[in-house]
Design goal:
Helix content is 36%, strand content 28%. It is built from twelve helices and 14 strands.
Length: 321
């Protein structure tokens, strides 16, 4: 559905994205994940035809983005980081205007507007002027305009930026509801966003893809290490004790009672750690495996915390299937 080949974009002597290659299949929800400035928005703008690449090819549904721009735009609904809203229009009038701009057949405009309002839960504010809506509702209007042409592909750039926690949860739930009926590529630097909404992930750093696969497979890249969270009852010199255990890579203390342990993924090592904690007299309140494996991998790949270059190269050349 979406195919990117050797995509590169230079701004003068600065390379924003460098030789990107990936495929996204029909029905997938894929997170384009990376730190601020990694090249996510540039990639989005090229895929949607908003910006031309320096070199490389982007195709949507088999059509080249720049050789067949009108065919591509019929297939895409795009929500940029700042929603393209006309604040003095009502929600319904704005969606009708967008539908006409996108050349939706006249007989389908009313039906598409109703469907977009329903999907984005905007029926109650359809007659309100956009300027008077909350930021969360404005974001919903932005998604509604992306949906009004009933596109095969949705491209969402930072869809929850600047929203409060309740609004973030609502937008995430909406994206999950759209899953299956649309192919979605979602740009974000928020890990929890990807975990909540996506089935696959592309991690981009300094303009290069450093990993792409399903979330489960990405989490398995943690170089044979796992993270444990330890909480003790009494303050003891646990850090020095645990660092002496074979297989423990590092121990960091959040405070006198709370520790984060990075260790080899060995079944009996957790037992050894628990035994040493009890032996020290510190008391064992909690010893659990961290659920933030995606975060661990992300930090390794984007901030160089022990990334194995050969492993990185192998994952970079995998194709999403």
């Amino acid at each position: 559905m979406i195919e990117v080949l050797n995509l590169t974009k230079n701004y003068g002597d600065r390379t924003a994205i460098d030789n990107l290659n990936f495929k996204i299949e029909k029905g997938d929800v894929v997170g384009l994940l990376g730190p601020n400035g990694a090249g996510k928005s540039t990639t989005m703008k090229i895929i949607t035809g908003f910006m031309s690449p320096t070199s490389g090819v982007a195709r949507i549904g088999g059509f080249d983005v720049f050789e067949s721009p009108l065919e591509v735009k019929k297939k895409i609904g795009y929500l940029p980081e700042t929603p393209p809203l006309y604040l003095d229009m009502t929600v319904e009038d704005y969606l009708r205007y967008v539908a006409e701009l996108k050349l939706v057949p006249s007989a389908e405009i009313k039906k598409n507007i109703e469907k977009s309002l329903l999907k984005t839960q905007l029926l109650s504010v359809r007659k309100r002027v956009i300027r008077n809506l909350s930021k969360g509702f404005k974001q919903r209007v932005g998604i509604a305009q992306a949906l009004v042409s009933n596109p095969e592909v949705l491209v969402l750039d930072e869809p929850t930026v600047g929203l409060d926690p309740k609004q973030v949860a609502e937008i995430r739930e909406l994206i999950k509801e759209l899953k299956g009926s649309h192919t979605i590529i979602l740009s974000t630097h928020i890990l929890s966003e990807v975990q909540a909404t996506c089935n696959k992930v592309i991690i981009i750093h300094q303009g290069k893809i450093v990993a792409q696969d399903s979330i489960d497979q990405i989490e398995k890249m943690n170089q044979g290490f796992v993270t444990l969270n330890l909480k003790t009852r009494a303050a003891k010199n646990i850090k020095l004790i645990l660092e002496k255990i074979e297989g423990v890579k590092s121990v960091s203390a959040s405070d006198d009672l709370t520790y984060v342990i990075e260790m080899s993924d060995r079944a009996d090592l957790t037992d050894d750690i628990a035994a040493e904690v009890l032996k020290s007299g510190a008391g064992l309140v909690e010893l659990v495996r961290s659920k933030n494996q995606l975060e661990d991998v992300f930090l390794r790949l984007t901030y160089g915390q022990g990334v194995n270059q050969q492993e990185n190269h192998q994952v970079t050349n995998e194709v999403l299937v």
